[in-house]
Design goal:
- This protein is mainly beta.
- The protein has a single domain (about 5-680), classed as Maltoporin, Chain A (Beta Barrel).
- It has eight helices and 42 strands.
- The strands form eight sheets. The chain has a 22-stranded antiparallel β-barrel. Strands 3-8-9-6-7 form a five-stranded mixed beta sheet. The chain has a five-stranded mixed beta sheet with strand order 19-24-25-29-28.
- A hairpin with a 2-residue loop joins β20 and β21.
- The protein is globular, with a radius of gyration of 24 Å.
- The relative contact order is 0.13.
């Protein structure tokens, strides 16, 4: 493992702190007070201005803390499965991927995932380790789900959507909570959060862990002989906010998480065991200055992922990824109708890989990304607003390793630069007191991952070898999104009706090296099969969501929805990435709940149409897409509030059958959990 350049981190952090003060976006915001003022959940993440979800210049769903509790879920993807337009790919008891509007695959690279403003997806594949996110489910205030291209509003990697997880504030909230859960598969989970705050500020500690047995359902051919881990997860988090003056706050955060699971490998399409260790450190501040709200956010993420893809367990295939981010932002108003936000961002990435069977050709890759963005919110009148945002990214990669001698590689050097522009423009019109119309355009940018643009190693086996290479000439994938959203409050039904049609265009989709074009080259008397990352083609998708959601004074609640996502890939995309077959076209959901006295009853029924997903029949040998039929899934929760502090809940998933075939990978088992939660 190489040493990260600490001097460079320190220098950049000092420059950011002393030349351009800025606030951490979450800490000048008291969400509890805003929610009381608006009478419903609010967000500031899109524009920096407090807004209801229906006023946000993007298709946003806010999942509240009450809805998280009523779901009975102890993991974030299962909570997200309640949102129309999202599809969840589960390939083991704890491993998930989340797709947006038909674009679903293993190691999903199109989704920006944030926790309190810090990126938690990993830049090696641009993937999210959902079961390794260091967060206590009981400490989540809300989860904001944005569907559609939003790079200019939210930042790097928000090409297909955003998941923004907001926890309770250490300074404005007093959240002391602990829970313990036992369940099938010998699952044992425990989480706790302790908060201390006062006039000086606040600090919060969260700690938790989980251990379980893996599902016993058969693994697909090619995975049968590979190691299987018992799923587990441990994490610890400390976040603090210091009120230095009435207008100045400083904040810090430290996280550590470690997990093992059995995940669908996005390279070879087999289920492989993996172990992941991640940690992060963050510091910044918020200053309500005469020139607007100035914020500075600096953080360092590091991850180590070990993949075990040899029958004997052996030495793992290891990936080290480091990320340093420094962000500077100023949000200010001109008059009462115009709000502006200008921002600069610097990102530094470092990537290395190693394995016993691999001959490293390029042992050290580094990327520098500089981005500038601006946002203008024009409140034309009480009923009409127009939001415009632009972002420019320049990403430069440099090769610090040495290419292996004697290999007839088509790539002579990995130094390269990519320039990309993204934008959003959205009109929000309150037609009447009960009708809201939103029309938007988004141009999102999915920059090539480190694996796609710079991975370069030789895998030897028998008398031959594979040369798998990233491609520094890859173009960024451009996602254009056209959306129309309509919300109508129906007082007679105590409900809101939402309609959200969309059309999406994807250009220059990039495939991983192991799924690109192949050829045979014979350097030094050895036959090398060459796999190189490529921009393989285009894709477009269309469809939408219709949802009726509400609750009555008598304690009943409901959420009925239908989602349609039709994806059409060009032939080259279909044979390599296959978005067209990997996600269901139709998804029906019905959520029903009832509260009476100390009791809560909730159920979630879903029907998902079939798919046709690529899978591997042998390690590294891809089969044709494998058809999977549609399926029905039912989950439920019964909660009883013992007293003002303690709640006991029984919950379960896949209740109507012992096993459910949701994908081309191992079937999902029924699960039951008993959870005791205490708040103090």
């Amino acid at each position: 493992m190489r040493t990260y350049p600490i001097r460079r981190i320190s220098l950049l952090a000092l420059i950011a702190a002393f030349t351009a003060p800025r606030s951490a976006s979450a800490e000048m915001v008291d969400y509890g007070s805003l929610q009381s003022l608006f009478g419903e959940p609010v967000t500031t993440s899109a524009t920096g201005t407090p807004q209801r979800a229906s006023d946000v210049p993007a298709n946003m769903t806010i999942i509240t803390a009450d809805e998280i509790r009523q779901s009975g879920s102890r993991n974030i993807p299962e909570i997200l499965s309640r949102v129309p337009g999202l599809d969840i790919l589960q390939d083991s008891s704890t491993s998930f991927d989340v797709g947006v509007r038909g674009y679903q695959q293993a190691f999903q690279p199109r989704l920006l995932v944030l926790v309190d403003g810090r990126q938690v997806f990993i830049d090696d594949y641009s993937r999210t380790l959902w079961d390794n996110i260091p967060v206590n489910i009981d400490d989540i205030r809300q989860i904001e789900v944005v569907k559609g291209a939003s790079s200019a509003l939210f930042g790097s990697n928000a090409a297909g959507g955003v998941i923004n997880i907001i926890t309770y504030s250490p300074i404005y909230d007093h959240n002391n909570v602990g829970s313990i859960s036992v369940g099938t598969q010998q699952t044992l989970t425990g989480d706790a959060t302790v908060t201390q705050n006062g006039a000086w500020g606040g600090t919060k500690f969260s700690v938790g862990g989980m251990h379980a047995n893996e599902f016993n359902t058969p693994r697909v051919a090619g995975s049968d002989q590979l190691p299987t881990f018992e799923p587990r997860h441990e994490y610890i988090v400390n976040s603090s906010v210091f009120q230095l003056t009435p207008n100045l706050q400083a904040n810090t955060e430290f996280t550590y998480a470690d997990n093992t699971d059995n995940t669908l490998d996005g390279i070879s399409y087999v289920t492989a065991a993996q172990q992941n260790t991640t940690y992060s450190a963050r510091a910044g501040f918020s200053w309500q200055s005469p020139y607007g709200l100035i914020t500075n956010n600096n953080y360092f993420n590091h991850s180590l992922s070990n993949f075990y893809e040899e029958p004997d367990g052996g030495r793992p295939y290891s990936l080290w990824t480091s990320l340093f981010v420094s962000q500077l932002q100023d949000q200010f108003k001109s008059g009462t109708d115009h709000t502006f936000r200008v921002a600069l961002e610097y990102r530094y990435k470092d990537f290395t890989s190693a394995a016993a069977e691999l001959v490293p050709q390029n042992s050290d890759l580094q990327e520098n990304n500089i981005a500038a963005s601006g946002m203008w919110l024009w409140q034309m009148n009480d009923n009409l607003s127009w939001t415009n945002a632009l972002r420019y990214d320049r990403q430069a990669m440099q090769q610090n390793g040495t290419l292996a001698a004697g290999v007839a590689s088509p790539v002579s050097a990995y130094d390269r630069a990519v320039d990309a522009f993204s934008g959003n423009s959205t009109l929000v019109y309150k037609v009447t007191d009960v009708d809201t119309l939103r029309a938007g355009y988004g141009r999102g940018v999915q920059l090539p991952s480190l694996i796609q643009s710079g991975f370069n190693e030789i895998f030897t086996f028998g008398g031959s070898a594979e040369d798998s290479e990233g491609n520094p000439k890859l173009k960024p994938t451009i996602v254009e999104d056209f959306s129309l959203d309509y919300d109508r409050k129906i007082a007679s039904l105590d409900s809101t009706l939402s309609l959200s049609p969309f059309y999406e265009i994807n250009r220059d989709i990039a495939a991983l090296p192991f799924t690109g074009a192949t050829q045979t080259i014979p350097p030094a008397g050895t036959v090398y099969a060459l796999f190189i990352a490529e921009n393989v083609g285009n894709s477009h998708g269309y469809g939408g969501e219709i949802e009726l959601k509400g609750h009555s004074p008598e304690g009943f609640r409901w959420d009925a929805s239908y989602s349609l996502a039709k994806v059409v890939d060009t032939n080259s995309v279909l044979s390599t990435v296959d978005y067209q077959g990997s996600s269901p076209e139709s998804h029906f959901r019905l959520l029903l709940g009832y509260t009476t006295g100390s009791w809560e009853f909730d159920t979630n029924g879903q029907y998902v149409t079939g798919l046709n997903m690529i899978r591997s029949t042998d390690s590294g040998i891809l089969a044709l897409p494998t058809p999977v039929g549609g399926y029905t899934s039912v989950s439920a929760r019964i909660g009883y509030k013992i007293d003002e502090r303690f709640t006991l809940a029984l919950s379960g998933t896949n209740l109507t059958q012992a096993n459910t075939n949701e994908s081309a990978y191992p079937a999902i088992e029924r699960q039951l959990f008993l959870t005791l939660t205490g708040r103090f």
